[in-house]
Design a protein that fits this description.
Blueprint (H helix, E strand, L loop, with lengths): L1 H15 L4 H14 L4 H25 L3 H9 L1 H34 L3 H18 L2 H12 L4 H8 L4 H7 L10 H18 L3 H12 L7 H30 L11 H45 L13 H14 L1 H4 L4 H27 L2 H4 L6 H27 L6
Length: 412
């Protein structure tokens, strides 16, 4: 019974932590620009993150080795270090944007100075990271992030055309096929998929498995959490796309502000719906800020062989503890300097797709190595899907920067 409860709690936290600022931004904009046409990207990206998330969790359960140990082992010292630095930069940009998103939500709810809220968010996150054990960080931010399901309810209340929804689940080219539209469509496909497959999710997930002391007997638990939790999280992303398609697209509104999403809940569910959406976004962004910060600290500790982990007291992992605290402090600097968090997270997502192949290649190689995992290594079909996705994200990574430039960051 206790094991079933743990699985249930882990699934709920996986749902609550699935959507962060970047995915919310691209999901809404995708709906506002293309209607339901990009719904297929959600299942494509979700299957990909399930695949590599399951492999990283399985490696952690069987070998007790986290992702960056695997990256250094497979890719070597130099390429591993390059991946670590690039991942750290993307984590930094994402964490900073999530802090900015939280501060914007507080300013919308209570008024006041954005910069003061940034500093209060910093204090809140440091206190949460310091005092809450790992499991409670997952549960508090994951459970309250579940209020993002409000956007699924809003989409249903807006009465979508289910025929259009069905067509949107099938990969297709945009209905308007000018050269500009094709480039913009390609940019949104790559960026939206990247926002779902952000590499920090696998870094944090595998490290979390070690924090929770997984063993080979937890491999089925790992698969259950991944499949059910990420599937339900994908529903939230689909709800955001449909909200953009049903409310913003007919009005020719491009939702580029953090608080715009909550307006849908206000229109469909009233003041209580708006409050639920705001709380859900606040804790979803907060969970992403904690995950990216800890992912950066995990990566550095794992690569250089430092003692790491929330299961250790700060005195038992002093460099790890100091790193994540400094990371949080530095991540507030761009927000205090007036950088737009939405623009920052959009750049982070585009750059993250460039580093995806470096991270996921190492995971795939290790997960398919029977000398390393024995009977827990990938089977034929898992390897085939893994290599297929690796080719896909490599092509996406090669196209991401040119499309960013040609579309002026998705603005056409």
């Amino acid at each position: 019974m206790r094991k079933i409860l743990e699985i249930f709690l882990s699934i709920l936290t996986a749902v609550g932590g699935f959507v962060e600022l970047g995915e919310l931004t691209f999901a809404q904009q995708a709906g506002a620009r293309f209607g339901a046409e990009l719904l297929w990207v959600i299942w494509l990206g979700t299957l990909g993150i399930m695949l590599y998330g399951e492999m990283s969790g399985r490696i952690a359960a069987v070998t007790e080795q986290p992702v960056f140990h695997v990256i250094r082992l497979v890719s070597g010292v130099r390429l591993g270090l390059l991946t670590l630095v690039a991942a750290g930069l993307v984590n930094f940009m994402t964490c900073s944007a999530e802090i900015g998103g939280m501060a914007i939500l507080l300013r919308l709810a209570f008024g006041g100075s954005f910069r003061v809220w940034v500093l209060l968010v910093l204090l809140f996150l440091i206190l949460a990271a310091w005092f809450l054990p790992f499991k409670w960080i997952e549960r508090v931010f994951g459970f309250l992030g579940l209020l993002m399901l409000t956007f699924v309810v809003s989409a249903l209340l807006l009465k979508p055309d289910w025929h259009e929804v069905g067509r949107g689940l099938v990969p297709s080219l945009p209905t308007a096929s000018s050269g500009r539209d094709m480039l913009l469509y390609a940019f949104f496909v790559i960026s939206f998929m990247s926002s779902i497959m952000l590499p920090y999710e696998t870094y944090f997930y595998a490290s979390g498995g070690i924090e929770d002391r997984w063993t080979p007997s937890d491999v089925p638990v790992n698969r259950t959490i991944i499949v059910i939790g990420f599937s339900l999280g994908a529903m939230v992303a689909a709800g955001l796309v449909m909200n953009g398609a049903l409310l913003f697209k007919p009005l020719d509104i491009e939702p580029q502000r953090v608080g715009t999403a909550s307006l849908v809940a206000d229109v469909t569910l009233g003041r209580l719906g708006w409050m639920a959406a705001m709380v859900g976004m606040f804790f979803a962004f907060g969970g992403a800020a904690l995950e990216t910060c800890f992912s950066a600290a995990y990566g550095v500790g794992q690569y250089f062989g430092w003692p790491w982990g929330k299961f250790r007291r700060p005195a038992g992992a002093p460099r790890f503890t100091l790193f994540w605290m400094l990371f949080f402090v530095l991540a507030t600097v761009p927000m205090l300097l007036g950088v737009n968090p939405v623009q920052l997270v959009e750049y982070a997502i585009v750059f993250s797709v460039v580093i995806l192949p470096f991270s996921y290649y190492s995971i795939l190689k290790a997960a398919g190595d029977r000398r390393y995992l024995g009977n827990y290594a990938n089977g034929r079909w898992m390897n085939a899907f893994g290599w297929g996705y690796l080719i896909l994200i490599t092509l996406a990574g090669l196209a991401a920067i040119p499309l960013l430039i040609l579309t002026h960051g998705g603005k056409g």
